[in-house]
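Let's sit down with a protein and look at its sequence and fold side by side. Please make up or recall a protein chain and show it to me in full. Label the sequence line and the structure token line clearly, so we can match residues to local backbone shapes. Go ahead whenever you are ready, and we will take it from there.
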Amino acid sequence: MIEQLWAAGEMPFHDGLYRPDDTALELRVEGPGAYHPDAGQPIPFRLAGPLDVAGAIEEDGTTEVDTCFETPLPDGSGWTSGGGSGMGNIGYLARLDADRSLRWLAVMFCSNPFVGVYHEGTTAVFTNDWNNRLTLDLTAPELA
């Protein structure tokens, strides 16, 4: 499901960290949305238990992927991608392999679109359209 959605330029309309094998984890990103009082601050990224991918898609549907960037990883092992969707509060991040196949997709309803990334070794620092930052260690087990 997830690979097919990604290939069609779509993603689930439900917060989650999705993998191409249709496994997923619940993901919670509380703001900062468009009117967040702490613009320019770090974005929290909280993973929880397993997420029923089919159930999430059945309940909430899908939305289009609007890509703002696709940047190669410094070690040449793949790419990071980010952007949003039709509504201004939705953001997504994706880790792609060297052939641009999907490794994982993070969909966040309250993050706002991600517009850029810079890399510090194995850490990626993503920035949304309000200059808020989300820092992820790309070697963390849930993101590897």
